[in-house]
Amino acid sequence: MKLVKLLANLGYGSRKQVAWMFREGRVTDAAGDVLYADDQVGHADVRVDREPLDPPLGLTLLLHKPPGYTCSTKDTGRLVYDLLPPRFRLRSPVLSSVGRLDRETSGLLLFTDDGQLLHRIISPKAALPKVYEATLAEPLRGNEAVLFASGAMLLEADNTPLKPAVLDVLSPTQARLTITEGRYHQVRRMFAAVGNHVVALHRSRVGGLALDDLPEGEWRALDAADIERLMAAHG
Ligand code: URA
To answer: N or C: which end of the chain has fewer CB within 10 A?
Structure first.
């Protein structure tokens, strides 16, 4: 691929803007020699303003989402994309979030520009477990775990019952819930259906991948071993 297209696809600017970067001599090889728009040079050998290029296509990353950020490219207020390098929003193919977390939910959020991988992760067939820690307004009654595990719980406005989910009670008002679906506001609606209210929600794990010690607001790119781990754990 010609460098002008490679850089435009990575979000460095429109083709016109990128063409100017070449004219200004801002694009070089690792040795500092100026490169040209039509050159075809390997990704690892290109520098822009002496910096290596952003990760190539096939980028998948994990963000520790703080509360208060919306999973959208163009909503009002703070967006999850504000926590990533600005160029990532302009990449082609687009870097999209894998499902969504509510604005006030924190925790593990994946992004990828690999459409096939995205479908593999969210596919009902994969049934990847998603683990949430919920802080509740009311003490648990004690019958929630059985109901959530039943496979017969029907949420208001849904046509099909929820797949069995696992509830671990951590304290009277703290619970860990593992679900294998991704229905709209699912965790909040499940607790609302048993007369409770989620006051804080955090996703700690998807499939075999956890946040580990990634600080809130930070992201890291996933490698092939991470993706294998992500997909290895089935519900
Ligand atoms: N369930 C919810 O209710 N909210 C989320 O953000 C994720 C799962």
So the answer is: N
Among the atoms of ligand 1, which is closest to the Cα of residue 105?
6
Class (C level, CATH) for 60-124+208-231: alpha beta
Q: Where are the domains of the chain?
A: 3-52, 60-124+208-231, 130-206
CATH number for the domain formed by residue range(s) 3-52: 3.10.290.10
pTM, to two decimals: 0.91
CA of 50 to the centre of ligand 1 (A): 42
The domain 130-206 having CATH identifier 3.30.70.1560: the answer here is yes
Distance (angstroms) between ligand 1 centre and the Cα of 33 equals 50
Q: Is 223 a catalytic residue?
A: no
Q: How far is the CA of 221 from the centre of ligand 1 (A)?
A: 23
- Write out pLDDT tens, residues 28-76: 999 999 999 999 999 999 999 999 999 888 999 999 999 999 999 888 8
204 Cβ contact partners less than 8 Å away, ≥ 6 residues apart: 107, 108, 131, 132, 133, 176, 210, 211
Residue nearest to atom 2 of ligand 1 (CA): 185
Q: What is the pLDDT of residues 122-168, one digit of tens each?
A: 999 999 999 999 999 999 999 999 999 999 999 998 999 999 999 99
Catalytic choice (39, 54, 102, 226): 102
- Residue 4: phi, psi to the nearest 5? -60, -40
Determine the angle formed by the axes of helices 224-232 and 115-122, rounding to 10 degrees. Answer: 20
User: What kind and span of H or E run contains 62?
Assistant: strand 60-65
